[in-house]
Design a protein that fits this description.
The structure holds two protein chains of two kinds.
Chain A: H1 13-27, E1 44-49, H2 54-66, E2 70-75, H3 83-97, E3 101-106, H4 111-117, E4 124-130, H5 136-149, E5 162-166, H6 173-184, E6 188-192, E7 208-210, H7 213-217, E8 222-225, H8 241-248, H9 252-256, E9 263-265, H10 278-281, H11 288-307, H12 322-334
Parallel strand pairs in A: 1-2, 1-3, 3-4, 5-6, 5-8, 6-7, 8-9
Chain B: E1 5-13, E2 18-24, E3 27-31, E4 41-44, E5 49-52, E6 54-59, H1 72-81, E7 84-89, H2 100-113, E8 117-120, H3 136-141, E9 148-149, H4 159-168, E10 175-178, E11 191-192, H5 195-200, E12 204-205, H6 207-224, E13 228-230, H7 236-247, E14 252-256, H8 258-262, H9 284-296, E15 301-302, H10 331-340, H11 347-361, E16 379-389, E17 408-418, E18 421-425, E19 428-429
Parallel strand pairs in B: 1-4, 1-5, 6-7, 7-8, 9-10, 10-13, 11-12, 13-14, 14-15
Antiparallel strand pairs in B: 1-2, 2-3, 5-16, 16-17, 17-18, 18-19
Helix pairs in contact in B: 1-2, 4-6, 6-7, 7-9
């Protein structure tokens, strides 16, 4: 893998499968009484959040802590300095503190790319969502969930699976990352949205586009519902939320037309009654909660692969294989209370 | 100084055969081989092309108000290095150049600089607000003698205000230079809307937002019989509209920037704000259409839209960055690269598009004149054989926001003469 994770397009098929396989191994840790590996002990991971996102931040925080990294949470929201100054100056501050990885969430598309290429910092940059550009770890956890639920095991990709992504494609970083990643993994992706919420230029994306949700449900192995902000109707993207829900929302009737094995996915937070009805959200086919769980192990895998390898220097990287996990666990047992490295 | 004589020896006037040109005081005295050199300073111009001093219809000098990015002095020094002898200073300063007082101040600062004539552009509306006409007549009658009016940076989007402005300036042969950008279609716009913006997740600036205003304004100009000038035309569709309007005989002119002749939105993939500009970089197809339109005269002239910004306004993330690029010191090189070296335009064509036509649109009388005896000695010598990387550290501009850093470009201005006096000698400011 590269030093940074900025875009899902940066991942080859083998990179992506490696992340998913690593996440599977690391995920087993959650079943153990002490959910911790010493792999990133002494490394510092900064969660740099310019935008509120408690869910993503705590997921990264849990992932870093389970790998024994020191975690610093830096919320830049409400900072009085101008936006441009604050990104550069904050980056220089983090660099001076010796951050090994910066997990960044930013309201501007491209801010993580800028952080990684500007020379402001030397550590790894992980994009935790930038504007309407990408959210690559969300795509990885979605792919992880899909692979698990659809029965393909370690070492496999999503070849031949059909995934339908429904909602505000235009403004969705989740959709952009998923289109890249799922197609890299061999899945056939179809985007469904009102034409107003599909970007001009989408014809070059590696996916199909449909305006008709009902037409694609029967052939979908998974339907991923995106959050649709109610404010969009004020900008005339659609007439009313009721019309949106009627034409593009997933309710029980529509779910019944999906194949029996097909999943309903949602990156959260859900807008119940808008893009998804409560009965669908709470049905066993909906993987929203499972996606959150998988998010932690997927993000562990990303941090592990970006930071845990060569950069460890003298220490042999504690691999997520059974043998290594065992020795790691022993290490953990030796210092059972060495945690909360904040 | 008015008794000074300069002999430019062996220059290719407008790219023609080598000849001698004698300057006497502020005017051209003789043109032809063996011009009398007695007592004259001699400039050896073997292999150099002699052009009329370049005229920019679209320059942001930033003074008054943003002297941290440029002043009239630094901007005119940059202009001289780029081969310009006259620039039109845009009105979006602080305060806005919407009164006779402000335009006279800018005009006077230009006179005092001595490097390049500064012709102020007046705002069309008070404070660039788009609602109330500024005192266009007073600005015209001031010492600055304004004939070009523009709210550049903002579009005069109200159709009635635009119509009235076009009509009103007929009284003194003025022209409205329109920044064609439909505001509602470009809310939150960060780059050209298309394949690249879809991938990068940056707000789109669709071509139709320019073309709809260009369409409306050529029709308005035709309706009231006025002159309209389209600033920084950037799309293939706008070219078609202007071509159609000209075919009707309507009084429409247009400019293109050097960067729109060379760069495309693919560069935005770097998220480097040095490529952030308004109107945005478009596609390869647009670039080729703009070159063809400049070659066939549909687009009248090249104008730099020189837009200096301090370092911190570009040393940040894309969304927070200012829009604009400096251009005065690289314009001629980009034009040679895109138009001359490609065979689309000869040097006579360059003289036409960078001097004669812009001077005529701005109704400047002392610039954009033929290289002939009796004409004002506003001249530029360029070495077309030169090729080298752009080094912003050598700019005379106070700002460095060039998209060409390190890029090898042809052509170098060796001398610039403003009314017979060298403002640039051997590539250096005099």
């Amino acid at each position: 893998m590269k030093r940074h994770l900025i875009s899902a397009a940066d991942l080859t098929r083998d990179d992506a499968v490696l992340v998913l396989d690593t996440a599977e191994e690391l995920g087993r840790l959650a079943d153990r009484p002490i959910k911790k590996l010493p792999t990133l002990r002494g490394r510092t991971v900064v969660n740099l959040f310019f935008e509120d996102s408690t869910r993503t931040r705590i997921s990264f925080e849990a992932a870093a802590k389970r790998l024994s990294a020191d975690v610093i949470n830096f919320s830049a929201k409400g900072s009085s300095v101008s936006k441009g100054e604050s990104l550069k100056d904050t980056a220089l501050t983090l660099e001076a503190m010796g951050a090994d990885a910066v997990v960044i969430r930013h309201h501007d598309s491209g801010a993580p790319h800028r952080l990684a290429t500007s020379g402001w910092i030397g550590g790894s940059v992980v994009n935790a969502g930038d504007g309407t550009h990408e959210h690559p770890t969300q795509a990885l956890l979605d792919a992880f969930t899909l692979r698990r639920r659809l029965g393909a095991g370690a070492g496999h990709d999503l070849g031949g699976r059909r995934v339908t992504i429904v909602g505000d494609i235009l403004h969705s970083r989740v959709a952009r990352s998923n289109v890249h990643l799922l197609s890299t993994l061999g899945a056939e992706v179809t985007l469904v949205a009102p034409p107003t919420l599909v970007p001009v230029g989408v014809e070059r994306w590696p996916c199909e586009v449909s305006y008709d949700l009902d037409a694609v449900l029967a052939t979908s192995d998974a339907v991923m519902m995106l959050r649709v902000q109610r404010e969009r109707m004020n900008a005339a993207y659609f007439p009313t939320e009721r019309e949106y829900a009627r034409r593009y929302g997933l309710d029980g009737t529509r779910m019944a037309r999906m194949p029996e094995h097909a999943l309903v996915m949602h990156p959260g937070p859900m807008n119940r009654g808008m893009e998804i009805t409560a009965d669908v959200a709470d049905s066993p086919r909906c993987t929203a909660v499972e996606q959150v769980t998988n998010g932690v192990s997927t993000r562990m895998a990303v941090l592990y692969l970006l930071l845990g390898g060569a950069a460890l220097g003298t220490e042999e990287p504690a691999g997520p294989t059974g043998r290594h996990t065992e020795s790691a666990e022993q290490g953990e047992n030796a210092q059972p209370h060495a945690e909360e490295n904040t | 100084m008015s008794t000074d004589k300069t002999l430019i020896r062996g220059a290719r006037v407008l790219g023609g055969p080598p000849t001698d040109v004698l300057l006497d005081g502020e005017t051209i005295a003789e043109v032809g081989a063996g011009s009398g050199a007695a007592g004259a300073r001699v400039v050896e111009a073997d292999g150099l092309v002699l052009l009329p001093g370049l005229v920019d219809l679209h320059t942001h000098l930033r003074e008054p108000g943003r002297e941290d990015s440029e002043t009239v002095l630094t901007g005119t020094r940059a202009a001289a290095r780029g081969g310009f002898t006259a620039v039109h200073a845009m009105a979006n300063t602080f305060p806005v150049a919407d009164t006779a007082g402000v335009v006279e101040q800018v005009w006077r600062l230009g006179r005092e600089s001595g490097y390049c004539d500064v012709q102020p552009v007046g705002a069309v509306t008070v404070g660039l607000g788009g609602r109330q006409l500024a005192e266009l007549g007073a600005m015209h009658e001031s010492a600055a003698g304004v004939t070009v009016f523009s709210d550049d940076g903002k579009c005069v989007d109200d159709a009635v205000i635009m119509r009235r402005a076009l009509e009103y300036v007929k009284a003194f042969d003025g022209v409205i230079a329109q920044h064609a950008q439909e505001p509602r279609l470009t809310e939150g716009a960060q780059m050209n809307e298309g394949v690249v913006s879809a991938e990068l997740g940056l707000g789109g600036w669709p071509a139709v937002a320019e073309e709809s205003i260009v369409s409306r304004d050529v029709l308005l100009a035709a309706h009231v019989g006025s002159r309209v000038h389209i600033c920084h035309l950037s799309t293939a569709g706008s070219v078609e509209i202007v071509r159609w309007a000209k075919s009707k005989g309507w009084r429409v002119t247009a400019e293109v920037t050097p960067h729109h002749l060379l760069l495309t939105d693919e560069l935005v993939r770097s998220y480097d704000p040095v490529y952030k500009v308004n109107p945005p970089l478009r596609t390869e197809a647009d670039v080729l259409a703009l070159r063809a339109a400049l070659a066939d005269g549909t687009i009248d002239c090249v104008a730099t839209d020189h837009a200096p910004h301090p370092h911190e306004d570009k040393d940040c993330e894309w969304g927070a960055a200012a829009m604009g690029m400096v251009g005065l010191e690289t314009a001629l090189s980009v034009v040679q690269h895109t138009m001359v070296d490609t065979g689309l335009l000869d040097w006579a064509g360059v003289a036409d598009r960078l001097s004669f036509r812009p001077a005529h649109i701005g109704r400047l009388t002392g610039h954009g004149r033929p290289v002939s005896p009796g004409e004002p000695a506003n001249l530029t010598l360029v070495d077309p054989a030169y090729r080298g990387p752009v080094d912003p550290a050598g700019f005379a501009s106070r700002s460095r926001n060039t998209p060409y850093r390190g890029r090898a470009l042809p052509g170098r201005v060796t001398h610039t003469f403003l009314r017979g006096r060298a403002t640039v000698t051997d590539g250096k400011l005099a």
